[in-house]
Amino acid sequence: MIRTLVKTLAVLFLLLLGILYAFSTTWPEPSIWHTAHLDQEYDISRSEQVSSFEDYLSLEDRLFQQLQDEVYVHTPSGPEHRIERYSRGSAVDATSRDKNWNRSFELRTEDPRGGVLLLHGMSDSPYSLRALGLSLHEQGYQVLGLRLPGHGTAPSGLAHFQWEDMSSAVRLAMQHLQREVGDKGVHIMGYSNGAPLALDFTLNAESDPTLKLPASLVLVSPAVGVSPAAVMAQWNRRLSYLPGLEHLAWLDMLPEFDPYKYNSFAVNAAEQVRRLTLSVARRIAAREKAGRSQPFPPILVLKSTVDATVSTHAVVDNLLGHLKNGQHEFVLFDVNRDAVTTSIIVSDPGPLTDRLVQDASLPFTLTVIANENMDSRQVVARQKPPYSTAMTQVEALEEAWPAQIISLSHIAMPFPPNDPLYGSENPGNSEEIYLGHVAIQGERGLLTFSSDWLIRLRHNPFFDYLEQRVIDWVDEAAGAAPAAAATAAAASAAAATATEN
C-alpha cells in the first residue's frame, strides 16, 4: 500500500515537473536587472561592521555605484528605450532626477518636536511615503525615510534578502533617530510590508532594554495578514533551483518602467512577507495570552475596505482585536456607493463593515469614510468608540468621490492627487513619465502586462483627510511622549531585572 502510494506521488511529481518545463518556454528571458547579484546590499551578517546608520548610508553609496556598474552600464540607451528604468537618461531613470527617491533620506530640523521613521512596502522605495514625510517635516519633526534591503535598486534584490535583514536595518534607523531627538518620542509610519516591520520593532522593544518604544505607530494599508496561497512561495523558490525552472523564482517578470517601484516580483518576497506577518501575529497573540499590562503604543490604521494585496479582516483578527487598552483607531475607506452596484463587483465589502460596526467587543475606535447617502458622492466620517455598536459621531468632510472612481486601492493610500508620478493630473513634463492615469485603448492581449494595471487607482482623492489625521495622531502622541517614555523606561528596567535574575 505504501509502495503504491509512493509510486503514485512520484509519477505525479514527474508529471508536474513536465508541465512546469513545458510552461517555462512561454516565459520571457530574464533581463540583467533580474539576474544581477548586488553584493553591496545590507544584510544581518554585516551588523557588526555596519553598526550605525552612517555606516548603512556608506554601504548604500557603494550599492548604488554597483547598480550603475552592473546594470545601467549594460542597458541600452536612446529614444527607443525612453521608458526603460535602467536606461541612462530615460524618462524613468531615477538617477537623472533632482533627487533619487530610491535612496534613504533624512529631513532634519533644528530643535525637532520628535522623530518619524518611514518604512515603505515590498517592492517599493522611500518615494512611497515621501509626501507624508514632507508634511510631517513641515510640522517640525525630523523625518527619516529608510530604504529597506533589497529595494530601490534592481528586482533581483527581492530574490535574495530575508525579512530579518529588513528588521535589522529598522533597528539601526530607529537607534539613529532616537539619538538625534534625545528624550523626544520617535514615531514609526509603516506602509504595507512596512507595517509588520514597525510592529516587529515595537514587540522587540518591549523586551529589549537597549531599545525605546515608539511614541506611536501609523500603519497604512498594513500587511498584517496575507493570502494562504503565499505558503506555495517557498516551494516555487526551491523548484526554481532546478535547471530550466529558473522562472519559478518569479511571480511576475515584467518590463521595468516605474522609477520607484519594481514591476517584477520574486517569490522570495512573498515568502518573506508571509514569514514576517506570521511572526508578528504569533507574538501579538502570545502577548495577549500572557496578559501583558504594559500599554502598546497607540496605533492608527488607515486602509481601503477593498484591497487586492492584503487582508482587511487581519487588521482586527491579527492585531487590533488583541490590544485591549482602547487607544487605537481603525480608519476604513468604503467603496463609492453612488457608483457601485453588486452586479458589477465580485464581492461587496459591506458585510465586513457591518461586522465591525455591530461588534461591541472591539477594543478600538472605528471610523468609516463613506458616502453621505446612496445617492450622493459627498463623503462623511462616521465613528464609533471602543466596546460599542453606536456610531456616535458623524463628520461631514469637504470632499467627494471623483467621477469614475469606485474605490481606493492598496497602492493608492499614501499618494496625493498632485503626486507628479501617480497623481490625477498629468504635470505636463514631457521629459518624465506619468503613471497616474494612463489612457490606452487597443486590442486585448497586446500589452506585456495585465490590463488590471491600467485601471488600478494610484492616488488617494481623500489624501488631505488622511494627511491631517496622521499629523493630528502624531501631534497628540508627541504631547504624551514624556509619559510614554517613562512607561517604556520602567518596562525596560523591569526586563533588565528579570534577565539578571
Describe it.
With 501 residues, the chain is α/β, with parallel strands linked by helices. It is built from 13 helices and twelve strands. A ten-stranded mixed sheet has the order 1-3-2-4-5-8-9-10-11-12, sandwiched between helices. Strands 6-7 form a two-stranded antiparallel sheet. A hairpin with a 6-residue loop joins strand 10 (365-371) and strand 11 (378-384).
Can you give me a brief rundown of this structure?
This protein is α/β, with parallel strands linked by helices.
How is this fold's topology laid out?
Layout: H1 2-24, H2 32-35, H3 53-70, E1 105-107, E2 115-119, H4 130-138, E3 142-146, H5 163-181, E4 186-191, H6 194-207, E5 217-220, H7 233-239, E6 250-252, E7 265-266, H8 267-289, E8 299-304, H9 313-319, E9 329-333, H10 350-358, E10 365-371, E11 378-384, E12 393-400, H11 452-455, H12 463-479, H13 481-500
Parallel strand pairs: 2-3, 2-4, 4-5, 5-8, 8-9, 9-10
Antiparallel strand pairs: 1-3, 6-7, 10-11, 11-12
What is the beta-strand fraction?
Answer: 5-15%
Which strand order spans the largest sheet, edge to edge or round the barrel? Answer: 1-3-2-4-5-8-9-10-11-12
Question: In one word, what is the shape?
Answer: globular
What's the total helix number? 13
- Please give the alpha-carbon distance between the first and last residues: 56 Å
Total DSSP E strands: 12
